[in-house]
Amino acid sequence: MPGPRIALRADMDALPVKEETGLPFASTATSTYRGQPVGVMHACGHDMHVAILLGVARALAARRDTLHGEVMFVFQPSEEGPDEPGAPFGARLMLDEGVWKDFRPAAVFGLHVWSGLAVGQVGFRSGPLLASADEWSLTVHGRQTHGSRPWDGVDPITIGAQILLGTQSLIARQQVNIASTPVVLTAGQFNAGVRFNIIPDQARLVGTLRTFDPAVREDVIARFGRIAQDYAHAAGGTAELKVVNNAPATSNDPALARRVLPSLQAAVGADRVVEMPLQTIAEDFSQFANEVPGAYFLVGTTPAGQDPASMPINHSPRYAPDEAALEIGARAMLQVALDYLEGGGASSGAR
Ligand SMILES: [Zn+2]
Ligand SMILES: [Zn+2]
Questions:
Q1: What are the CB-based long-range contacts (under 8 Å, 24+) for 159-163?
Q2: What domains are defined for the chain?
Q3: How far is the CA of 125 from the centre of ligand 2 (A)?
Q4: How far is the CA of 129 from the centre of ligand 2 (A)?
Q5: Ligand nearest to the CA of 112
Q6: Residue 44 C-alpha to ligand 1 middle, in angstroms?
Q7: Cβ-count burial of 282 within 10 angstroms (0-12 exposed, 13-18 middle, 19+ buried)?
Q8: d(C-alpha 328, C-alpha 320), whole Å
């Protein structure tokens, strides 16, 4: 029947994590990631997203004859980022390849399972919800020399360490107002040298930057670049900073959020829909939601009686989401979809 077009999106990819849940069906898969042998685990719960969206597809297909509008189910690979920095991936690649060329939805909906909420709870927020995620890499060029004679060379390890500490004072002590707009700048890799008594030629740091405001993001990147160059020059070396954006901030369209909230409340109970604070995790769902109005919500996975704050979080090798979240997520997404297609507030259609 005539009605709006909507898209429901689930991401599908796993992570280079060796599973340590001890579950009978724990992953034993292995692979290589950027040259290193790794385990492969659904540590972010995207396998649950696939199962949930398949359940929703089945439920909607069963009502096909009475459905107002059209629904596209978007199963998206490589949400966690490209195999190599800067390579096309994920939601952006699907859009560039024309996923919405012939089917432009009026709205897009997505969800994520989340250890920070109890199973049964759904987290939502109007406006910014998840951060923008950049992958940065910093290469410091020094000059190799004997470890006993640092004055003969330029030590890139010390320069790299100074730059890293400089970035932390940038966030805390320069012009970033962290009270109004959170910024996180983390190094996850610091690689340099091969031997205890050789000062190497170069050091490489790799990390992530999380922001919620595009202007703040630009500013922090510019300051980071200046700190890197100034510290390196002061010590006789050079530094190059490269920053690749993996996902813009995910923001729930306020008008759409007003429509979605009653649907979530109808699906899981008003007292179980939690207003989320800003989350520094990121999601490339934002690429879709920057094209058309989007709404994104979190589905709790911490078993009853456990404290969500002390549970292994998504990306942990011990992340073991409660499977009851599958039904909650499917029920919530189905209600959101049906209500939107009906063009109004909550109905009891999905209970
Ligand atoms: Zn993830
Ligand atoms: Zn994820």
A1: 159/203, 159/231, 159/232, 159/235, 159/237, 159/239, 160/190, 160/192, 160/203, 160/204, 160/205, 162/231, 162/235, 163/138, 163/205, 163/227, 163/228, 163/231, 163/232, 163/239
A2: 11-26+39-49+75-131+249-313+321-342 (3.40.630.10), 132-246 (3.30.70.360)
A3: 18
A4: 14
A5: 2
A6: 4
A7: buried
A8: 16
What are the pLDDT tens digits along the chain (351 aa)? 889 999 999 999 999 999 999 999 999 999 999 899 999 999 999 999 999 999 999 999 999 999 999 999 999 999 998 888 779 999 999 999 999 999 999 999 999 999 999 999 999 999 999 999 999 999 999 999 999 999 999 999 999 999 999 998 887 766 667 667 889 999 999 999 999 999 999 999 999 999 998 888 999 999 999 999 999 999 999 999 999 998 999 999 999 999 999 999 999 999 999 999 999 999 999 999 999 999 999 999 999 999 999 999 999 999 999 999 999 999 999 999 999 999 844 444 443
Tokens found for residue 294: 């989007």
Output the six-digit token pair for 63. 């009502």
What is the pTM assigned to this prediction?
0.86
C-alpha 267 to ligand 2 mean position (Å): 23
How many whole angstroms from 154 Cα to the centroid of ligand 2? 41
